[in-house]
């Protein structure tokens, strides 16, 4: 979503993972944000994955850049930001909760994968049952894609997707 937003706003985009970043990487990110040129006069969008992993000092360093408009920060976390992001930074952010996808949305994704993904090209795939795919995905597109990758990596040219087969396949690959 952050990358799409940056493209639509025609702003520079940079990504940082809080899992792997230390104070040095945060400072480098902020230094680059100050170096705007005539060709890039707009504040860049900085996407920070797993932002809850930043310590208080790292979050405070981001706070000053957000306040000054040096960056537009978009963060993602699997944790409740009210407990994991410090109050000063959180008060300058808008929080959006992404909800699980509906079964209809997941069915559309299954169709697209079967039609367009290279794993299923030149294969005879029969989708007999889909309840296991929907249940195991838990409304998560990434999880569904991972399951479909397991299905596509079975090596067979003829694939018959049934609930029991999908459950067994996923259980074998845990």
* Structural classification: alpha/beta
State the separation between the terminal residues, measured CA to CA.
Answer: 29 Å
Read across the widest sheet, the strand sequence of neighbours is 1-2-3
Q: Specify Rg, calculated over alpha carbons.
A: 21 Å
| Helix/strand order | HEHEHEHHHEHHEH
What is the total tally of β strands? Answer: 5
Count of individual helical segments: 9
The largest pleated sheet is described as: 3 strands, parallel
Tell me what the structure shows:
With 174 residues, the protein is of the alpha/beta class. It is 48% helix and 13% strand. It has helices at 2-9, 23-34, 56-67, 81-84, 87-90, 103-116, 131-137, 141-152, 163-172, and strands at residues 13-17, 45-49, 72-76, 124-127, 158-161. It has a 3-stranded parallel β-sheet, sandwiched between helices. The chain has a two-stranded parallel ribbon with strand order 4-5. Strand 1 (13-17), helix 2 (23-34) and strand 2 (45-49) form a beta-alpha-beta unit. It is elongated, with a radius of gyration of 21 Å. It starts with a helix and ends with a helix. The mean pLDDT is 89.
């Amino acid at each position: 979503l952050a990358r799409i937003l940056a493209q639509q706003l025609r702003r520079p985009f940079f990504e940082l993972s809080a899992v792997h970043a230390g104070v040095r990487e945060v400072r480098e990110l902020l230094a680059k944000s100050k170096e705007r040129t005539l060709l890039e006069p707009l504040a860049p969008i900085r996407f920070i994955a797993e932002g809850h992993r930043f310590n208080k000092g790292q979050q405070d360093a981001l706070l000053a850049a957000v306040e000054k408009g040096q960056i537009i920060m978009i963060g993602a976390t699997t944790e409740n930001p009210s407990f994991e992001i410090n109050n000063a930074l959180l008060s300058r952010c808008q929080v959006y909760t992404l909800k699980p996808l509906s079964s209809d949305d997941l069915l559309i994704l299954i169709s697209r994968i079967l039609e367009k993904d290279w794993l299923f090209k030149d294969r005879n795939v029969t989708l007999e049952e889909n309840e296991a795919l929907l249940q195991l995905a838990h409304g998560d597109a990434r999880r569904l894609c991972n399951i479909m990758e397991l299905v596509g990596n079975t090596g067979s040219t003829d694939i018959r997707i049934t609930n029991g087969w999908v459950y067994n396949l996923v259980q074998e690959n845990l």
